[in-house]
Amino acid sequence: MVIEPSGRILGATVEGLDLSRELPADAFAGILAALGQHGVLRFPGQAIDAAALKAFSAHFGGLQTTLSPVNEPGFPEVSILSNIVENGKPIGLSDAGQDWHTDMSYNATVGFVNVLYAIKVPRRDGKALGSTSFANMHAAYDDLPADVRERLRDATVLHDFNKFWENMRSRPGSERPPLTPEQRAKRPPSVHPLFLTHPITGRKVLYCNPGYAIRINELPEAESDAMLAMLTAHQLQEKYQYTHQWTEGDVLMWDHLGTLHTAWPDYLPHEHRLIKRCQVMADRIFDPDFLPPSVRALAGARGESHAGTRA
């Protein structure tokens, strides 16, 4: 296994692994370490089926499962992201247009990594479309003013799925109805540390995304709104960003704890995109016994509170 950094603030390419085969133990440790260091990992030139995508992803934690009709048949852990319509029905869900966010931060058990496999990539005039951009939350935390870090060192943030839903409803042409009380009850808000200790690096990250964060609990409402606006402007500075341009056969894996992401909807309905995805939950990564010794050594001494990151 060879890891080639992108030379940017995030991103690395991992060569020498065939993800259709069982993952060696030393490769697992190396991937975890690289994920902490680079945030976004590309495994190019892969040819895998849904079973292999599931098996690779399951090394890193429990997989989100749904009974959606746009999942891979027989694999509730493998969802389909696509704009393709067959026989008048979409074969997948769209992941574009959600703006900057971190998956599952509204859950008591948050997302740890996404693993996406590109099968069809839209192109126009030879240029790949539908890129995914990321922002580095290790760097965003490090660059915060010292007085902000000290003042908010023990602060927590309320994350709410309804914020994303209402943002999508407000877009021109949207026909989404409001969430019903029953739907909201199934996805209640959750609370997580504003400054989360990353389980792989042992460093702090700014765990607060504009997609779901609605309140810093320890501040008055008006002050919280102003601070969230400041934090959003800070974390989305171009210097923290990295953009991945997709190629067929890419498996792209990224760390939800240390990054934000957004998918760019710059392709038309006839420019087809097809990606299969597994969502890995942070149900194991905060357990030191889950980490290989070499990765535990990276994080150093623990003892920070991870309250609110797990069910």
TrEMBL record:
GO terms for molecular function: metal ion binding; taurine dioxygenase activity. This is Taurine dioxygenase. Residues 7-278 form the TauD/TfdA-like domain. It holds the Pfam family TauD. One of its GO terms (cellular component) is cytoplasm. It comes from Pigmentiphaga litoralis. It is an enzyme of class 1 (oxidoreductase). Its EC number is 1.14.11.17. Gene3D superfamilies: Clavaminate synthase-like. Residues 169-191 are annotated as: Disordered. It comes from the Bacteria. Keywords: Dioxygenase, Iron, Metal-binding, Oxidoreductase.
